[in-house]
Design brief:
single chain; five-stranded mixed beta sheet; 14 helices; globular
Amino acid sequence: MAIIDLATTSESTTVSADICIVGGGPAGITLAAELAKQGLQVLIIESGHLDREDAFTAGLNNVENIGEDRILDQSKLRNRIFGGSSHSWSGRCTTFDDMDYDRRSWVAASGWPITKHDVSPFIDRAAAYLGVNPATYDTSILDRLRLSADFDATKASAIRSIFWQFSRERAPHHGFVRFGPRFLRNPIPNVSVTINATVTAIETSADGGHVTALSMKTPAGIVHSAVARMFILCAGGIENPRLLLASNAQDPRGIGNRKDLVGRYLMDHPRALIGTFPEGAQSRILPEFGVRSDRSGARFQRGLSLTPETQQREQLLNCAAWIVYDFAPDDIWSALRTARRSGKLMPQVRLALRHADQLVAGAWSKYIRKRALPRRVGPIEFHLTLEQSPDADSRVTLSDRTDAHGVPLATIDWKVSERERRTAIFLGLSVNEALKTSGLPTTTLVDWVRDERPEDAVFFDVAHPTGTTRIGRSDDEGVVDSDCKVFGVDNLYVAGSSVFPTGSHANPTLMILALAIRLADTLVARMDAPQVAAGVETVSA
């Protein structure tokens, strides 16, 4: 593996490989790993640094927002750093439901051109990269976690149980997988990484049907090039369409945009607070909905969703609700962690003696019962997230303003429809009814849910921009085909959530990696033995 810092190069260079990947996030790194296994020389182009994001690099993420309110701190949305969004993600993983792939008559522009059967083998392979067990999302989890089945769809309720599993690094710290640091600890042969290299344009043949090179700039403004046989955009749901639209030297509409679909159908996972639980409810709510471990050590959180039958009957969207809480000031485990970080022994000893009862209970739970540590928590809230109806008018376009490299900023017009608002209210009311029926404490719903006022719904995005280069059966339906190749361009592909036609309620990372691995297999099958050796060639500026 070679790390090439273009910021240290004073002359223009040309970097070459068999396959060039734009973006060093989870999708890009996973693709590189899969391709390199087959002997292909792979180049990852990363706009940022290896381990930090400076002011200049962060400024390249600036956007103009003209739609629904979105996260203003773009570092929470797009991490220009090697490892990408894995530096800030929550580690939650789950699979798409069967219906998420289907054409639903009440959801316009829904339906994937590939099926669950096409994707399932790659889910298993993606799970290994994330440190999760892929075959653990059915109702058998209820028994393994010793949870009640009162919320299962078989109980003739509108509500069903769903589960998230948390990504877990095997070493050295057992936290969420951070793709950049893991790659640097375990470099992959045949993979080179350029850093401080922002792709500013995709260069094509005169007819626009073949990518010839990528143009890159360093913070100092020096222009470099990357050449390859195949190119893959893995820069996220905003940067992927932005780059396609801005690469308009041959066609003023941009690349892959003959049908004006690049940047359209922008979706996210609208999230909202729907209620709070009364003080004292934690002893009954947390065992059902808190984070728990099974005997293998895998960590899960239970949530509630609407059954597919309910969604169809009520003409609603896929969705999920779960509890959110913080640890209380007197939680011994949080206090011990803080004391341990101080490096002083006596504060730790005094804490342990003062809270011996909690330590004994924790040891019994963790090592004898093989369950999660008992924690003391503060106020408990119920949150929800939901998929969006694809809307062609919800989109990313180019601004008249430019970034420091002269590339037009992304203008974001994110729209949330009436159907999303109705889904949130129906889920909130249904969850409370299910809690009541099961004899559990109910949540005090926020007023717009309780009073069924969709016009007053308060959502925020969760940094999952989706759908802006969607998969389609033809260029009338999407930007890329079922193999994620851009329509009309023979050697340009897109990976990431920007290709999702619909987004499910599921956190996208597991599906992103599954589609990336599927794309890697496709490219390996299409390419002969490597013909271009990776390397750096200095040319005249």
